[in-house]
Amino acid sequence: MKLRGKAWKFGDNISTDHIAPGRLFHLRSNLPELAKHVLEDADPEFPKLVQAGDFVVGGNNFGLGSSREHAPTIIKLAGVSAVLAKSFARIFFRNAINVGLPVLICDTDQIDQHDELEVDLAAGTIKNLTRGVELVFAPLPEVMLTILEDGGLAAHVQKHGDLRLE
Asked: Among 19, 49, 140, 146, fewest CB within 10 Å belongs to which?
């Protein structure tokens, strides 16, 4: 599966409160509306300008904080094709896979704001087309790729009638 889009660069320790602002918790039952505010506390322009296929690029410890599932869900609803970071909070990582949002652990130092990227999930490569460099990441396990291809864990179970991991 290949993905292509523009990088939106964020720093270290982007919390679930940065992603899904707590002051808007009343929108938790209206996720498309909440997605209109995704990451606005980290970059007020992001929710207005992000395009389908773009990438969120973080530093260390992306997604720390509360385990709210809304955070990866609204990133996906905003059209982001994947999140790339040096490291992820464990619960955010798992929630992202469960909702069908690829999360990739890689060195993000060679990615700048608005660089054009091409990501090959199966090969474990990120081509920074703007800078002419290729980065690698440990390819996701086959089971995670299957869950992502099916659109998330719930869609995977619905499609197969069970959690098929072979």
From this structure: 49
